[in-house]
Automatic annotation (TrEMBL):
It is a multi-pass membrane protein. GO terms for cellular component: membrane. This is Amino acid transporter. It is found in: Membrane. InterPro entries: AA/rel_permease1. Signal peptide: none annotated. Pfam families: AA_permease_2. The chain crosses the membrane at residues 45-69, 75-95, 107-125, 131-151, 183-203, 209-229, 289-314, 334-358, 387-406, 412-434, 446-465, 471-490. Residues 519-573 are annotated as: Disordered.
Length: 573
């Protein structure tokens, strides 16, 4: 029988386009998730603690004051409500997708299955802003509270030269300025590296530390709400929406404040990055995502209300530890200030812990798909953690935290998060129509449009209303990512270049703690998984499953595939 050519006669531009929109088959993603060597040690309470640990941090201890002073005034309370609503809508979408695709990689994995490789790369690159840059933001806030704590408790005063950023951002002139009184932020670098070391050792140890820290900071936040509420002066709420002044205040200031405090909510999606270390990810991930977000939203609104009531928003400008600073204006609050400083230090540590746990697992997932160098897919032989991307993430985080100011880092993290929320909401709609019968441990109530559409649209509006420089920096970052994809990811993608996954990969993935089936490609085997391995190009049932076929670009045929020297697909007779 003649061998009809499926792809060879197509022009180059069409083959490139097909590659860019090629989706990773959902069945393949689920199969990879069942075959894991990461230790499944996280229960439902652990996942809720992961969410709270990541959410309550810089947003409440640092950015509340920044957003009130520079953007919204007392209306920062409204900013928190809007951000909470948008995050809540997106949390439903994250919950459905995480129960349907319980694989580490978060929005990257969901986008790969719904919108194709190019969009998956964009969101994976964007998530670096959310997790890695986000961790750097928190490290800067941690540094400020450590300095304040040592000053209040031990009367030890650190020099600004080694505890502040050498670069500042002027929101009025929208330009960078040199901070001549500082060289580097050493405490921020220190905490980034220490957390990295803990994560290399293992997720269970990190989980135990996180649960302890979460309990401490929840107590401290509640103490601030009830301990400071007696100092509230209603006159501080007037005017609730300050009149527009330059780039600040007014209605637009509320939305700018929303974009800024959005950083405060980013942690809930970090729960989904721990999917392959969860005991029952399909049922426990939705609980972890929704409960952690709900608890934190209530606390955020309460803290913002009390803070704006005990001090004029104008006094909060430039304060990296606004809760403590506000209490200094009132008598008999030293004990409360010390508790808040201690709670903030513990709380911010847990946020850094969770964010630096999430980022390496996204790198790990992208490396497994060939979009990042293979070394990012290595597991430590003893600890079974992705130690290479963990170390790389920690070092880069330390460098950013030591140099850049908290507001720049926070704004970049927020816009990156908004973009991820938009794509995840769209992903739910697509999955409802392309994979309607796949089991879901949780479904977004009201069908595929009632919640995901408003979630995507509101996130888009907040993103568009962000200030110009932040949007420009986002586009520059994404442009750099596209260059990296063109130079490496496109050429090494597993679904686009199956012929590259050859004998050289066998020894590598065996050495890295993964198992490589010469027929199938690299997988991570679970000793409890007795399912038969499917040959490369199948889903385990003998049917063809190339990513291009899953897109409907190529017609699926129940025959073996052969790859030519050019990577074109031919049907064997």
């Amino acid at each position: 029988m003649a061998e009809p050519e499926i792809q060879g006669a197509q022009p180059a531009w069409r083959r490139v386009l097909q590659r860019l929109i090629a989706r990773k088959p959902l069945e393949q993603i689920l199969q990879e998730g069942r075959r894991t060597q990461m230790k499944r040690v996280l229960g439902r309470l652990d996942l809720i603690a992961v969410g709270i640990g990541a959410i309550i941090g810089t947003g409440i201890f640092v950015l509340t004051g920044v957003a009130a002073a520079e953007n919204a005034g007392p209306a920062v309370i409204v900013s928190f409500i809007i951000a909470g609503v948008v995050s809540g809508l997106s949390a439903f979408s994250y919950s459905e997708l995480s129960s349907m695709v319980p694989i580490s990689g978060s929005a990257f994995t969901y986008t790969y299955a719904t919108m194709g490789e190019l969009m998956a790369w964009i969101i994976g690159w964007d998530l670096i802003l959310e997790y890695l840059v986000g961790a750097a933001t928190v490290a800067v806030g941690w540094s400020a509270y450590v300095v304040s704590f040592f000053s209040d408790v031990f009367n030890v005063h650190f020099t600004p030269k080694t505890t502040q950023s050498p670069v500042l951002w002027d929101s009025s002139s929208l330009s960078f300025k040199v901070n001549h009184g500082s060289y580097i932020n050493i405490p921020a670098i220190f905490v980034s590296l220490m957390v990295t070391l803990l994560l290399v050792v293992g997720i269970k140890q990190a989980s135990w530390v996180n649960r302890t820290i979460v309990c401490i900071k929840l107590v401290v936040v509640v103490l601030f709400i009830f301990g400071a509420c007696k100092y509230v002066d209603r006159s501080n709420y007037a005017p609730f929406v300050p009149p527009r002044s330059g780039n600040s205040y007014g209605v637009k200031g509320i939305f700018k404040g929303t974009q800024r405090v959005f950083f405060a909510y980013i942690g809930f999606d970090a729960v989904s990055t721990a999917a392959q270390e969860a005991k029952d990810p399909q049922h426990d991930l939705p609980w972890g995502i929704c409960l952690s977000l709900g608890i934190c939203t209530v606390l955020y609104i309460a803290v913002a209300t009390v803070l704006c009531g005990i001090i004029s928003y104008r006094e909060l400008k430039g304060q990296a530890s606004p809760l403590v600073f506000a209490l200094t204006f009132h008598d008999n609050t030293r004990w409360l200030r010390i508790l808040i400083e201690l709670g903030a230090i513990c709380g911010l540590t847990s946020v850094i812990l969770i964010l630096l746990m999430g980022q390496p697992r996204i790198f790990f997932t992208m490396a497994r798909d060939g979009l990042f160098p293979r070394i990012f897919g290595r597991l430590h032989r003893r600890f079974k953690t992705p130690y290479v991307p963990t170390i790389v993430s920690g070092v880069v985080c330390a460098a950013l935290a030591g140099i850049l100011p908290v507001d720049i880092l926070g704004d970049m993290t927020s816009v990156g998060t908004l973009l991820a929320f938009i794509l995840v909401n769209i992903g739910v709609i697509i999955m409802r129509y392309t994979h309607p019968h796949v089991e879901r441990g949780f479904r977004v109530p009201g069908g595929p449009f009632l919640i995901p559409v408003p979630g995507a649209l509101i996130a888009l509006v907040v993103l568009v209303l962000s200030d110009g420089p932040t949007i420009y920096r986002l586009f520059i970052w994404l442009a750099i990512g596209l260059i990296v994809y063109a130079l490496y990811g496109y050429r090494h993608s597993r679904i686009g270049n199956p012929e590259r996954w050859s004998d050289d990969d066998v020894a590598y993935f065996q050495d890295s703690g993964m198992v490589f089936d010469e027929e199938e490609g690299p997988t991570k085997l679970d000793p409890m998984d007795n399912s038969e391995r499917a040959p490369r190009g199948t889903l385990g049932n003998g049917n063809s499953s190339s990513s291009l076929q899953d897109n409907g670009i190529l017609e699926a045929q129940p025959v073996d595939k052969q790859y030519t020297s050019h990577g074109d697909v031919r049907a064997a007779g």
